[in-house]
Amino acid sequence: MVALLVASAACTRKEPKAPGSIVTLDTEVSGLSGLTRDEHGAFWAAGERGDAVIRIDPETFAVTRYEVRGAPDGTDFEAITWMDGVRFMLGTETQEKGRLQDAILDGRLDGGRFATKSVGNLEYARWQLTASDNHGIEGMCRVGSDLVFATELVREHQGRRWAPLGVFEPATQTWSAHWVALTTETGKLAALDCRERAGAIEALAVERHFEVSRLLRFAIPRGPEGQWIEPVVAADLAALISPLPNFEGLAWMPDGSAVLLTDNRYRGRADESSRLFFIPASALR
Fold first, then answer.
1. CA distance linking residue 80 with residue 82, whole number of Å
2. I want to staple 208 with a disulfide (CB 3.0 to 4.6 A). Which of 30, 96, 213, 279 is the partner?
3. pLDDT tens figures, 61-97
4. What's residue 10's pLDDT?
5. Gap between the Cα atoms of 201 and 51, Å rounded
6. Across the strands, what pairs with 208?
7. pTM of the predicted model over 0.85
8. C-alpha–C-alpha distance, residues 240 and 260, integer Å
9. Is a pLDDT exceeding 90 seen at residue 152?
10. What is the C-alpha separation between 76 and 167, in angstroms, rounded?
């Protein structure tokens, strides 16, 4: 009888609905976080526990798992961006409360494995903040050689909620610390992608928290730091997708569409497969 009830529940589970296509990923790596595309169009994502990185074939969506080596103990992977060839950058977090920084890792394929090493830190003192446990670098993207970092931290300012946003320019070894407005009472930045447009960095980001899930679009100016950036809500995903998953990866495609990656791990459990949601450009503002 128990077996029959379980089978019946599985058969009646609601399949997700979305304005575009949905691809279920066949991988044992759970808790995927971050999403990026390489020069061949393949998607890459990181297992948040820091033990694996996966490649997703752009045509068949077959998944290849690469074991990670060299990651600091207790470090979770939360963001990834492709740099060139087989080289990537990763953003991290830990469970330590009151942290002043989180590590930025260089990652690259090496002999069938994914080798990582620390190449610097995102210093939260730039925003006069500290990080709580399980909150850190949630999004990364690259424009040219410049890197953009989104964090899950939040600051209250003049009755509104703001998220720290950092830009690093390797050519000058300089950081610019900005703020981007959040559009809900509970949401935090959870994923990021960007591109260059009219001399500025144009970004697309996920703002989410359980029942909240939105795509925000905004421009990051090149120049003086300390900018207070106002975003546009490009899409209210809660109104487009049901049931609403936990999106922690984002790739902004050349045609203006968006690909979202679900994190299927919550409180140590993975209840379903990770998925890619393909949102057409027509669904975005």
1. 7
2. 213
3. 999 999 999 999 899 999 999 999 999 999 999 999 9
4. 40
5. 32
6. 188, 213
7. yes
8. 13
9. yes
10. 21
pLDDT confidence of residue 268: 61
User: pLDDT tens-digit profile of 199-237?
Assistant: 889 999 999 999 999 999 999 988 788 999 999 999 999
Q: Cβ distance 229 to 181 under 8 Å? A: yes
* Fold that domain 25-283 belongs to in CATH: Neuraminidase (2.120.10)
Find out whether the peptide bond into 243 is cis, omega within 30 degrees of 0. yes
**DSSP readout, the chain?**
-HHHHHHHHHHHPPPPB-SS-EEE---S--SEEEEEE-TTS-EEEEETTSSEEEEE-TTT--EEEEEEESPPTTPEEEEEEEEETTEEEEEEE-S-TTBSEEEEEEEEEETTEEEEEEEEEEEGGGGT--BPTT-SEEEEEEETTEEEEEES--EEETTEEEEEEEEEETTTTEEEEEEEE-SSSS-EEEEEEEEEETTEEEEEEEEEETTEEEEEEEEE-SSSS--EEPPEEEEEHHHH-BS---EEEEEE-TTS-EEEEE--EETTEE-S--EEEEE-GGG--
> Is residue 136 within 8 Å of 93, Cβ to Cβ?
yes
Which pairing describes strands 174-181 and 160-169: parallel, antiparallel, or unpaired? antiparallel
Inter-residue contact 54 to 36 (CB < 8 Å): no
Q: Of how many residues is the chain composed?
A: 285
Q: Where are the domains of the chain?
A: 25-283
Spatial neighbors of 250 by CB under 8 A, at least 6 apart, are 35, 139, 191, 192, 193, 204, 205, 206, 215, 258, 259, 260, 261
